[in-house]
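URGENT: need a sanity check before tomorrow's submission.

F., can you look over the SWIM zinc finger family protein record below? I want to be sure the sequence and structure line up before it goes out.
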Amino acid sequence: MSETRTPTQVRRTALAPDVRRLDERAARAWTERMAVRPLGGGRYAVDSASGATYVVDLPAGTCTCPDHQLRGERCKHLRRVGIEITTRRVPAPGKRAAVCDACGVDTFVPEREGPPDLCGACRLEPGDVARDREADDRLVVARVTPARASEVLIEGVGETVADYATNEGYPADDLVVEAVYLGDLARRESPRRYSFPLSRLERVDDAEIVDRNLRERVTG
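Structure tokens as predicted:
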């Protein structure tokens, strides 16, 4: 039986500072009850303890509260959004919260990226070089599909990716990765794409061996 990958994700949480050493706005940003909700595009709604809701535009460095609008101060709401991002409670601009479609952990993914949603441990990008755990071959990733191994039929074989003999032991609900063998990529103008369970492939640091033009033939 093949060894499967069990991704883990480590999140670092910033420790709260000694608020006695902070200025008033910074201390209030750390201690007051506020709820931060991402709105997309680098904008965040901040619900304050008073019941008011203000909108922080982080890329612009603005907030709709009177402290910022009238006094031009870096208000507690702007600071609180920065704290929430640093402690990974909300996504940074350009990211959105998601559940990894491969391992099920909570993660942040590019805001405009479509499914599947993958955490850093499971992610394979088009153009990545991957190692086949079974044959130790090198492949170039074309794409990670949203389909599961039990759903994708292998052309000319009549079996699903999950049922194929060399994929025994890999989860039937693995996402399917389309990839091209590195040798085929160098020899053929139109190399065939093969389908693999995601956990059968391991990203490797061999990117320098793949010419950019060859990589574009796979991902284009």
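My own read: The mean pLDDT is 88. Residues 19-86 form one domain. If you see anything odd, call me.
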